[in-house]
Model the fold of this input.
Amino acid sequence: MHMNFEPSAVACDEIEFNDFLKVDIRIGEIIEVEDFPEARNPSYKIKINFGEAIGEKKTSAQITTLYTKESLIGKKVAAVVNFPKRQIGKFMSEVLLLGFSDSEQNVVLFKMDHEVPNGARLH
Done:
């Protein structure tokens, strides 16, 4: 299945509600950001705190165009926490950080309009 991230793309194939429930999307707080010079595309290595039940997880993200390392510290983000770990070069990514493409194809992290605790699940 090819994923088209263009805003004008048609919706993906329908899935069952129970399929959606299998995707565990949680809120976490970015606590550490490092450059990732070994990555093919400009990226950061990011550590996110998902609260006591899930703990701290690492990921990499190609978000260097719109975000500085300093601006990301303390930011609340959404991520899929139940995908298998993925090797990216010498780095092991544990979660998938979620965002939307802007008109220039830069990844934009979304923000909530009310505070929720780390580890809160999307529903």
Q: What stands out?
A: Helices lie at 17-22, 69-72. The chain has a mean pLDDT of 92. Residues 39 and 89 are 7 Å apart (CA to CA). DSSP finds two helices and nine strands in the chain.
